[in-house]
User: What shape does this take?
Amino acid sequence: MSTRKANFVTLDELVDEVGIDVVRYFFVMRSMNAHLDFDLDLAADQSDKNPVFYLQYAHARICNIISRANDMGVGLNDSFDPSLLEHGDEIALLKYMSRFPDVLELAYENLEPQTIANYLQELSARFHKFYSHCRVITDDEQLTISRIAVIHASKIILANGFKILGISAPERM
Assistant: This one.
């Protein structure tokens, strides 16, 4: 809405233009006490500049990796060896994932869902960094199984965060 130009966009028009996930996320990613500038160009962008696309792309990428591993006969296995996870980006991702329950509690206690949105943005960034430095599907089957466990845990956290925020968790993009 622009008061100077005397024009406005309804919420229905906004949803039609960029989709419900983007609208929900853009409204929830800011504190209710903060001024909201809804950047329509950013909201419509289908790149990693758009925070919703960035989050959903992380989830879809994880789903794709898990699907490829399953096709190769390597899937989630409860008997993975955590001692194989020694790369710095793996450790950083695992440590960050362990904070999710505390983030949920903080968001609930303070009635600030943007805490979850901010956490998911950072989790996605850490996942993408991990993915760029650590090959998940490798020639070492035990390492692959261990890394599948890591990304599966990331997928669960992303999907749960999306569900809380009312955002879809696409498996393909």
User: Anything to note?
Assistant: The chain has a mean pLDDT of 90. The two ends are 31 Å apart (CA to CA). The CA atoms of residues 55 and 124 lie 6 Å apart. Residues 141-165 form the longest helix (25 residues).
